[in-house]
Amino acid sequence: MSPLVELRDWLSGRGLEVVLIILGSILLGRFVAWVGRRITDRIDRRATGGDVLVRSEAAKHRHSLTQVLTWAAIVLIYSIAVFFVLDRLGVPVTGLVAPATVLGVGLGFGAQRVVGDVLAGFFIITERQYGFGDVVSITVTGAGEPATGTVEDVTLRVTRMRSPNGEVITVPNGAIAKVVNLSRDWARAVVDVPIPTTVDVNRVNEILREVGREAFRDPALRPLLLDPPSVMGVESLDLDQVNVRMVARTLPGKQFEVGRDLRARVVHAFRAQGLSVPPPPPVATSTPDDELAREGER
User: Fold this and answer.
1) Burial of 82 (0-12, 13-18, 19+ CB in 10 A)
2) Contact, 216 vs 229, CB < 8 A?
3) Are strands 168-172 and 158-162 parallel, antiparallel or unpaired?
4) Does position 298 have pLDDT exceeding 70, yes or no?
5) 284 pLDDT above the threshold of 60
6) What is the pLDDT of residue 214?
7) Which of 1, 60, 201, 250 could be cross-linked to 254 through a Cys-Cys bond (beta carbons 3.0 to 4.6 Å apart)?
8) Is residue 257 part of a domain?
9) What does the pLDDT average to over 7-25?
């Protein structure tokens, strides 16, 4: 039998099976991805009503879990397709068990960080530490400052979030040392109002209480507040000024918007009462010549 006839017979037999397996796995993988997107989109619409920052904890967990299950199903589909293709090509799959075991052990030692990332991601998702849409501050091992932003994607290996400046931050789950969830169940807007020591603190407290009552009555701000803002009193004391703290419990992720609104209301209320918020103290700067002059004086 000529080689061309053998090639034709193979293409019409096993070759066709290989092509069908590859096409079937691709179509099945895309179908699973499409179903996963439909499920996550439905979860988002039911949980937020268009706002990606405010959603229930159960919805966040379902969203992250759906993404992980979708990814795992796609990997499983392609892995099974590879074994079927090897079998149709005449490669003894059972004979690859021993080499695959040795290769797996070698990869296990060489890919410890990847394994650590996957295990850390598994516990992040199962323990519901944070989920899609949460505002978090993550301390990364070896990094100077924590990464803060809104979580956009949580997989078994990485956490991807977007900073307030629009930057996309990708953090390996195994490198996470500390997580501060700023939008779990409820959040708190904290407003520190500096006032001169010569101003009556009781009068300032009454003005701030009235600001809180007006904010709670405002139809635009009321849906974001869980209860009326309260005045905690003097928080810190300096030589020239004191800081009076005002706090408000808000929906998760809305503490920044509420804080900005309350600060603007405080400024307007103080102006109406003839008071003014003192500017921040100037930052002392010195030049190298000033440093040399002080050294000479010593």
Assistant:
1) middle
2) yes
3) antiparallel
4) no
5) no
6) 92
7) 250
8) yes
9) 74
pLDDT band at 98 (very low <50, low <70, confident <90, very high): low
The secondary structure of residue 225, as a DSSP letter, is B
Supply the mean pLDDT for the chain.
78
pLDDT at 75 over 70: yes
Residue 13: which domain range?
Answer: 3-91
Which one, of 233, 249, 240, 227, lies nearest residue 193 by Cα?
Answer: 233
Other residues' Cβ atoms within 10 Å of the Cβ of residue 15? 15
**99-128 burial string, b = 16+ CB within 10 Å, else e?**
eeeeeeeeeeeeeeeeeebeebbeebbeeb
Asked if residue 161 lies in contact with residue 178, where contact means CB atoms within 8 angstroms, the answer is no
Structure tokens at 145: 């400052």
**What are the E-state strand segments in 80-163?**
135-140, 147-154, 158-162
Domain final residue pick, 65, 91, 117: 91
- Sequence-ordered list of residues with C-beta below 8 angstroms from that of 142, at least 6 positions apart, any chain: 175
3-state secondary structure of 146: coil
The neighbour count for residue 7, using CB atoms within 10 Å, is 11
Half-sphere CA count of 39, side-chain side, radius 13 A: 18
